[in-house]
Design goal:
Blueprint (H helix, E strand, L loop, with lengths): L2 H6 L6 E9 H8 L4 H10 L2 E4 L6 E9 H23 L10 E8 H8 L4 H10 L2 E4 L9 E8 L1 H17 L18 E4 L2 E6 L2 E5 L2 H11 L38 E8 H8 L4 H10 L2 E4 L8 E8 L1 H13 L1
Antiparallel strand pairs: 1-3, 1-4, 2-3, 4-6, 5-6, 7-8, 8-9, 10-12, 11-12
Helix pairs in contact: 3-4, 4-7, 6-7, 10-11
Amino acid sequence: MDPAKIQSEGGLNVTLTIRLLMHGKEVGSIIGKKGETVKKMREESSARINISEGNCPERIVTITGPTDAIFKAFAMIAYKFEEDIINSMSNSPATSKPPVTLRLVVPASQCGSLIGKGGSKIKEMRESTGAQVQVAGDMLPSSTERAVTISGTPEAIIQCVKQICVVILESPPKGATIPYRPKPASTPVIFSGGQAYTIQGQYAIPHPDQLTKLHQLAMQQTPFTPLGQTTPAFPDELCLQPQDALLPVPGLDASPPASTHELTIPNDLIGCIIGRQGTKINEIRQMSGAQIKIANAMEGSSERQITITGTPANISLAQYLINAR
């Protein structure tokens, strides 16, 4: 197939799939009120435009169709983004108009062809279209794809996308491609009355899954196995991730008033609980929402005293996490 022919005619009947990575705000702009904008784009370009589901800060927009349909869809997206930039500038003191930016997701095995020997291809694209093109050095998380960022005027972006399509058609991906799937956003979580809640804006939304189970498990685990004996292992599905840090929200917790609980820990185990430079104990404090004080070592004593202050739920979770350490 003659690449020049693809460009001059806007595309033969070659079906292509191009994936774009967009932020939530950009996706909202493409969808439009009640989905009207994306519906219009689908009808006018004849391309299939699919938007990945999920509460993620990033979404994947997949455009499939003959090359000419893809170029039309891209043109509509680029002009829509330019319109958004112009609208946002009317409320800002900035005088120079920022460029439109699109991020393509391309299998890493095709990125070499886009860059060309010694960067010759990407340089040629920049010079002939006037668009800025950058290929990310690293692959996107848990995938074999890289982000290719194009910025410039809508016209420059459309010309650049045409040239990228030519390269993609000439150099099919090698081997299997693991597509990039954006991860959901981690939201702060708190406990109140035996239920976990995620914080969304100013509201606390009940969070029915792992964290509530962990919280209930923590409540059931008192009294705890004495330290030094076998401690109950965390079931896999209850493992807390760092992003699940439990953040207390003022005024939301209607739990019983704070109380105090004391534990004694052998000196040789205190290091695992405190962690390097206090990282582990700080993590336990943050997760449980309890205040935890470790007494200084007493001369001649082989044990240290730990004082935990908080609601019964906070204390139970802190005890459970200390025991698990």
